[in-house]
Amino acid sequence: MELADVLQNIFLFNKNLQVVLKLIREISRLDQNRMENVQRLRSKLSTLNEAIKFLDRDIIQKDSLIKWANQYSKDLESSESELIERFGLDLEQELKKIGMTLSGHYPELKAGFFTIETNFTKKQVTLWYGPKQDALTKCKLVPHDVIKCMEKCRHQLGSSVSENDFLEKLYKAYSRTGEGKIFEKSPIIKVLAEIAFLIQKPIFYSEPKRENYTSYSRADFSFDLFRLHQSKQFVYDNRRLHLVVATRAYTKKRKDFLWVLDDITGKGTTYSHILFQEISA
């Protein structure tokens, strides 16, 4: 072997060794707060294992590193399991403080009408309305943050109009769908499109710009219908509101149905049409 080859080998060994040393230092730093850095530590450890392969197989340091890396991998698995278990227990305690209970199994937990979809790899939670009907928001995988997001979403759901005003707007939206003759059932999603326009603030009608538009989602409509149900206000202008339960044919596509909350615990019913029927004298 030529001297140049020897020097090249030494250079490569030293380069790989520096990579290994750098990774070990990074792991040591992150390990000071292991529970917060489990996923980053796992990634660093995987890179370290690959870097170790380039070291000379005969040196004792490599064998020591392999043994250490294997044991550390087991430690991380244990810490990850502890993190998952602790999140559920802490979230349950936080929910009890506001009178709610936690149910379900990872990755999907349930509290009230929320589905809490957990992602421990990304350390992230996705909050859903109902049984994963509509995604509301994302937040950190921290119990206190999850509670704050739930309370914020609950406050923002639905429109700001009273039940009486909403019933009137609902009737107008229903009347504007143009599905056959008036007082026949109308597709609930077409009614949603109409009422989304009717619930806008006055400024939108005088200046219909994007920044003046108030969004109104499926979840908002569902929650407003739930509010109406709770208030037991179903009659407008001598016509009674009826929600038509969706048959199997109408539950295949989201454009044909709407899931509506039945009670605060998260039970709900899927509807396909709305009908205002005249009350007989």
Outline type: elongated
**Count of DSSP-assigned helices:** 8
Output the radius of gyration: 29 Å
Helix/strand/pairing category = alpha+beta
Number of domains: 3
Overall number of strands: 10
Average pLDDT rating: 88
How would you sum up this structure, described in words?
This protein is α+β, with helices and mostly antiparallel strands. The chain folds into 3 domains: about 5-85; about 100-155, no CATH class; about 165-280, no CATH class. It has helices at about 5-30, 40-50, 60-95, 145-155, 165-175, 190-200, 200-205, 220-230; strands spanning about 105, 110, 115-120, 125-130, 135-140, 185, 235, 240-245, 260, 270-280. The strands form 2 sheets. A 5-stranded antiparallel sheet has the order 1-2-3-4-5, covered by helices on one side. It is elongated. The protein starts with a helix and ends with a strand.
What are the defining features of this structure?
8 helices, alpha+beta
Brief sketch in words of this structure:
By secondary structure, this protein is α+β, with helices and mostly antiparallel strands. It is built from eight helices and ten strands. The longest helix is centred in the first third of the chain and has 38 residues, at 60-97.
What's the helix and strand layout?
Elements: H1 3-30, H2 38-52, H3 60-97, E1 103-105, E2 108-111, E3 114-119, E4 124-129, E5 134-140, H4 143-156, H5 163-175, E6 186-187, H6 188-198, H7 202-206, H8 218-231, E7 235-236, E8 239-245, E9 258-261, E10 268-278
Antiparallel strand pairs: 1-2, 2-3, 3-4, 4-5, 6-10, 7-8, 8-10, 9-10
